[in-house]
Sequence to fold (364 residues):
Amino acid sequence: MAAEPVNVNGFQELARQALPKMYYDFFAGGAEDQYTLKENEEAFHRITIQPRILLDVSSIDLSTTVLGYNISMPIMIAPTARHKLANPSGEIATARAASACNTIMVLSISSTCTLEEVAACCNAVHFFQLYVYKRRDISAKLVQRAENNGYKAIVLTGDSPRHGRREADIKNKIIVPELKNLEGLLSTKIVTDGGSNLDALANWTRDPSFCWEDIGWLKSITKLPILIKGVLTQEDAMKALEVGVDAIIVSNHGARQLDYSPPTISVLEEVVHAVDGKVPVFLDGGVRRGTDIFKAMALGAQAVLVGRPVIYGLAAKGEYGVRRVLEMLKDELELAMSLSGCSSVKEITRSHVRTKHDHLLSML
Fold:
């Protein structure tokens, strides 16, 4: 039997061995040249940690709150599509792992288990990720179903008026199963003449005219808090505040939409400054180590969301694999905090990290 991975990256190799190439490429791939995909991870490597020594770190508290919900660690599960392509148990296994680790899972609208099945499978806080479709009535129905089934927030993805060009999927001519949440609402059977049916499906269903003004419509159909995902600039952070969102997720969609968009950790601080504490800011993209989470928190994120590593854990070892990925990141974060002199997440401050920008300033 293969040795247990010693870090989260070890699960990626196990997933590559376990999955058909078409599905591995679907999960692992990014847009076009995959510049942003590489940079999401590399940009973390350019930030150094400035530890403080000789502080009492005999007990470390990783717990935090997200929109008033207590979680055991500042690590949530990002919305990712089609978990059954990774493991037959699909999103139910992922949700149970999140519940066991006492954290929040954001369920993708493009899930392969229904939002009702996921809500019923375990006692946990779930958020629901939403794309707005050309048929607004269908989006409204999904929001209402999420609210009725106890989901605690809506995560609106704002960076996908069209589908990014993921060339591995086009080469592989990927065909994906119909979306469970849309059964009986919208036919998602799309016939393409070559290429990926994902592209055709997304571009056929999603509403490219949806804009900031339309968030008022979304707020009018739900009492749930709304998080906007896909913010990468101070201008959009300020827009998000203007329309009254409850939180912001700094995200480039796991580098699957616009290639050469900035790595998320490199723009986090810009967004945090623009928001100025008015709403919480979260980050996803490229998080592979506890030290990455420490760096994100030092730069102002309240928590991070993790996408691909969760899928790799699921593909390699099912629910147990997802749990191990979350536990590894938690353990690494705890160690990083201990070695940096922080006994709680509140003690992680901007002075604990040095960015490339700080180095340049110090040379002036």
